[in-house]
Each structure stands twice: as structure tokens, then as C-alpha cells.
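User: Protein folding is very new to me. Would you mind checking the protein record under this note? It all follows right here:
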Amino acid sequence: MAKKNKSRNRTSKAKSYQISLPLFVIPLKKEDKGLFGALNEKQMVETLKENLDTFPVTELPSRGKSKRTHITSLHLSIISIDDKPALLVRASVFDSNLDDTYLNDGSNKSKISKSSKLGGEKYFILFYPKIEGQNSEKYIYTWLQVVYEDPTHSTGVATAVAKKLVQSQIQTEPFNVKLQSAIDDFKALAYCPEVQVRLVSVYHKGECEYPQFKEYLTDVHVTEQSVYTFANMPQKDVESLLRDQTDNGEVVVHKKAIFGKKEYHVKRERYDERKQWRESVEQLFNSKHEVSQEEIESGRIFEDDFVIDVFNTVITNYLSNK
């Protein structure tokens, strides 16, 4: 008896995609008199909107590439998230200096000229204000910034836009205060499920693997990377590790404490062993939202009510996990 072909009875599953929604916790600098001890959440949002209204055309870091990426304009809307005011940013971004780029409609192929610009107008970022404390003298002001990394755009562009906005418009706390804020956030947890440490070292080697060409040798440059992964580390040891500033000559020291969707990053880097460290701290809450191919092709994922609903879910989930 022939076997039944079960595949005929199966319904093909519709293709789905993920919107990545990293949430960054940004503590504001207390010395900024316009933001500390003076503003409520509505005023925080209105002040940020006023500052971003005059945001100029700005180039994003190119990381050694000839292609140039610019933020050309921002569309700003004050909306309601969890019954509080928030600022919705829709950024327009274009790429220029495109040397090896073509358009092909199936019958004709034409090269994009170097002066041409290719861009998109739907890079979404949310700024949600958060004020904690018993009185205005002890308020802690924080922005929760959520980035909408949708599947139609190159990964990381929306996040790069979000970081540029913060760097240019928001006075944040210095490294040591951000680090303390991150540690305070997970202090009530007894253990950390996963901790990672990535070390990158660069050194020069004396010996030559090609002795027959030694007379032409000028340098032997070695880059070495080590990644350490720890599980179920006690909270006090996680704190000690994140605070540790041991310097063994590395050019990158990246520490990451992972509590489910929440991550705490402490990064120190330098591109020359003689230079000072460039230090940064990030508090992240990672979320994803599944969308269908139909929602993408119809443009539904870019409609304001859809975007706001997704942001609302992320903020609600983050606050309920506090």
C-alpha cells in the first residue's frame, strides 16, 4: 500500500519577519538645570522636541567606508504612551558616494551616479520620559529610548541615528554614574544567568615565519581575541567584574551581564595602546515583534498607529519587568 503524501495536506506557513526593538536607558546629567529639579514629563518631552526641531543635516560614522550616510530631517510628534507624553521621531536618512551601485529593472541596468542619493523616510525612534524620586531635589531623570529596527532597512542604521541624536542633544551622566545606575538596576537579583567578557589585544611579534624574506620585514602585527562566558554568577561578583579596571594592554574590553531580555554593557576601547580609554555603559532591554510579509508589503508596519502600538507594548513590558 502506497504511503500517503502528507505534504499535500499541509498548509504552507506564511513567511514572517522580526522587528528588533532595543530599549536604551539614558540617565540625564543632574547638573543640567533645565532638566533636573525643574521639569515634569510633559516639559521634558516639549524641551527635547524644541531642541530636535533645529537638528541639522548630520553624517553618521562611516567606519572606514567610502559610502556616506546622513540624517537629512526629523519629523517629530508628541504622542501618548502608557498615558504619558512621549516623543515619536521619524528620521529621513540617505546614502551617497555610492561607487558600485546599480539599478536593474529586469531589462535595463543603470549605474547610480556618485552624486545620487538613495534614502528612506521611515526610521522610527521613541523617547519616553521617566522621573523617579520623592521630591524635586532628589529626582532622577531618565529617557527610555526605543529603536524600531524593521526588516526593510539595513540593520543598525536606526540605532546609529538614535545614538547620534543622544550624543548631540542630550546631556547624559558620566561613565561612573551610568555604571552605578546599571548596577543599582540589577542589585536585587541574587545571580546573573550569563556574563560575557570579550578581550581584544594587539601586539607585535619579533619572530618571522618567513625567514627567507626577513630582510624585507618591517613589522609583525597580531590581533588576538578571547571571549569568556560565565553562568550563574553571584550579583556581588558581577558588580566587581563590571567595576574592575585592570589594564593588561588590551585595546577592547567589553563586559556584558545578561538577565533575560535585560543586558548591561560596559565597554572600554582604544585604538592605540598609548591612548586613554574611551569608556561607555549601556543598559538595554531587548524586544522583538513578529510581522508578516503582507504587513511589510502593504506598508502597515510604517503606519503611525501600528508603530505606536508596538512601542507601547515595549514600554509596558519594560516597566512591568522593573
Residues 304-320 form the longest helix (17 residues). The two ends are 60 Å apart (CA to CA). The chain has a mean pLDDT of 87. The longest strand covers residues 118-132.
